[in-house]
Amino acid sequence: MNFESDSPAMTLGEFVGEEDATIQAITAFGDLDQAIKTLEPRERMIIIYRFFSDMSQADVASKLNISQMHVSRLQNHALQSLKRLLADSE
To answer: Is the pTM of this model over 0.85?
Structure first.
């Protein structure tokens, strides 16, 4: 093997590469997952149904046997709680 080359030596950053956005997303998702686990059970289910199962507020209301307006209020409260929790974890 010939290790000599006319090209300049690579820096560690060039060799290893840049920070992987996927790893950052996984870390952020882990934080979000932990924050979601702290919500009240009904709020947690609303967030999961709305944003991870892509259900409408009306569908969630029907599934949980509550009004769509109540789903909206609980969703807003849950989102505010998640924003606070995630801001505190940064």
So the answer is: no
Give dist(CA 22, CA 27) in Å, integer: 9
Can you give the residue ranges of every domain in the chain?
41-90
pLDDT band at 31; cut points 50, 70, 90: confident
Opening angle at CA 74, ends 72 and 77, nearest 5: 110
What number does CATH give the domain 41-90?
1.10.10
What is the spatial distance between Cα 78 and Cα 81, in angstroms, rounded to a whole number? 5
Task: Write out the E strands in 1-90.
Answer: none
DSSP symbol at 90: -
